[in-house]
Specification:
Layout lengths: L1 H37 L6 E8 L2 E8 L15 E2 L4 H14 L21 E2 L2 E2 L2 H5 L15 H8 L17 H14 L3 H10 L13 H6 L26 E2 L1 H11 L5 H6 L4 E4 L2 E3 L4 E5 L2 E10 L2 E8 L4 E7 L6 H16 L2
Antiparallel strand pairs: 1-2, 1-12, 3-6, 4-5, 7-8, 8-9, 9-10, 10-11, 11-12
Helix pairs in contact: 1-10, 2-5, 2-6
């Protein structure tokens, strides 16, 4: 019995040592990549989240305000920008499973006017085209000052390609998707996000509408000339952008996206449109699959901050990287950091 206790003790000690080593290696990989990023003086701060095998590691670096040394922390609120679209995709997937919508529905059955312009040679735009950027809609809404103006702008759109055949990134389409979801569930879109995603996953620091205290925690970002940039002002439903979140809440979102028992997650990760040999569009997810790698990812960029949010289901891992800088090359630079961090973590 004495020997059994001794063996058990040393086994537990070894397990603890391995755990500490693994934790330290994750922290070292994050730190090394963050320091390299901040060597580029156009970047001022970065927050990195790694969720791997059920354990989260969050680290923050740099300063939110130039010259003040105020490092971001777990309570810092970032604008998610276009990563908001993955929330839209999740609710669209739920609506399909709830039989509220069908991917092959003509979108005009949900509109209050005929919109004869929203087709190409008799081929209608379908729900699946909205969520895969293959609708032929312009990138930005023709009118976006308010919801009434948005529908006026829809009448001015001319569809010049057959829906479903050509990928063209559109911020117009997800806003219309959000309106359709609002209509079929008979609830404001913001409430749908809260009810279907935020509350069930206890993401109480993720929100569209901020109170006064929230605004004190909201990042004010910069361009590459160190000029302070404005925060995004949402005038439409929020299907494209408008969510704010913290690194701790993004861990909860990673857990959701890695939950293979969740039928809505599985639906939202379906490949709906093939864009290349190993590249697909899902429900507002970009999906890459080759060899041993399966990736669900989305980039978010707004006036003064950018982020990448990436899920690796085969490795049971998620990575999120957020910075208070935004300029043309930011997304490409952050993507390389995420890829290098992934490689470092999987050596």
């Amino acid at each position: 019995m004495k020997y059994l206790i001794t063996i058990l003790f040393f086994t537990l000690l070894a397990c603890k040592s391995v755990h500490q080593t693994n934790k330290q290696s994750v922290e070292n990989a994050i730190t090394n990549n963050a320091v390299q990023l901040l060597a580029d003086k156009r970047f001022h701060s970065v927050s990195v989240v790694v969720y791997k095998d059920g354990e989260a590691t969050i680290k923050h670096f740099g300063e939110l305000t130039i010259g003040e040394g105020n490092k971001p922390n777990d309570s810092t609120l970032y604008e998610l920008a276009s990563v908001t679209k993955t929330f839209t995709g999740y609710i669209a997937a739920k609506a399909v499973l709830d039989k509220k919508i069908n991917l092959d529905d003509d979108i005009r059955i949900y509109l209050n006017e005929p919109y004869p312009n929203l087709e190409f040679k008799g081929e209608p735009i379908k729900i699946r085209h909205l969520i895969t950027h293959t609708s032929g809609f312009p990138n930005f809404p023709i009118k976006s000052e308010n919801k009434t103006a948005f529908f006026e702008g829809l009448k001015l759109i001319k569809i010049e390609t057959k829906p479903g055949e050509t990928y063209f990134y559109s911020n117009t389409a997800p806003e219309l998707t959000a309106y359709i979801l609002e209509k079929v569930y008979q609830k404001p879109y913001e409430e749908l996000v809260i009810e279907f995603i935020l509350e069930p996953n206890k993401m109480n620091q993720t929100k569209f509408t901020l109170n006064e205290n929230d605004r004190t925690r909201l990042v004010k970002g910069y361009n590459d000339k160190n000029q302070l940039m404005p925060n995004f002002n949402r005038t439409l439903w929020g299907g494209i952008s408008g969510l704010h979140s913290t690194t701790t809440d993004l861990v909860k979102y990673m857990k959701l996206q890695l939950d293979k028992s969740n039928p809505i997650v599985n639906e939202s990760h379906k490949k709906l449109y093939k864009e290349g040999s190993d590249f697909w569009e899902g429900y507002h997810w970009y999906i890459i699959e080759n060899d041993n790698k399966l990736i669900y990812r989305h980039h978010g960029g707004i006036y003064g901050m950018q982020n990448w949010f990436v899920i690796y289901p085969k490795q049971n891992m998620g990575i999120s990287i957020l910075t208070n800088t935004s300029f043309n090359e930011t997304g490409e630079i952050l993507e390389k950091v995420v890829d290098q961090l992934y490689d470092d973590l999987n050596k």
